[in-house]
Design goal:
about 170 residues; 2 domains; about 35% strand; alpha+beta; Nuclear Transport Factor 2, Chain: A; globular
Amino acid sequence: MGRGTGALAVAMVSGVLLAGCTSTDGTPSPSASSRAPAPSTAATTASPTPVVTGSLNSDGPDEAAARRILTDYLAAWRDKGPVLASTTFLTPDEQATTSDDSPKLTKGTLVSVEDPERTADGRRYLVTLDLTFDGDPGAWSKGRNERFVTFVPRAEANSWEMTFATGN
């Protein structure tokens, strides 16, 4: 193993994002944060959790955090495909199981996040996305799409997954 083979560890603790680097033997590298120890192996092997800026509290993400989560989701969908993006960001009932019949996103832009509302499940926003696909968009439209997005709490503290519903 050569240079650059260490691991980047990220964890959310009490609403604060912690990050650190470790070398292959588990010792902090010179670039590791002096304020944030590397989390345990259990924390780094859990299912992926999006890195978020903004407030994540018991009522759901504030608008800044919601924007970051949605932007990260669109980037993951475009770069990593619908299966990985959906398992990282969406509720289990909305996750893609195969990329064969899922829309291939080539460009996705978050246009707006509006009308926050506390619901029984989490926090809901009316979101406008501008989407471009390679091929059939499936349940989406090419161009502008409005959806209600509800952020539902995960078992992990200060972690949220999304569910989409049409704005009509």
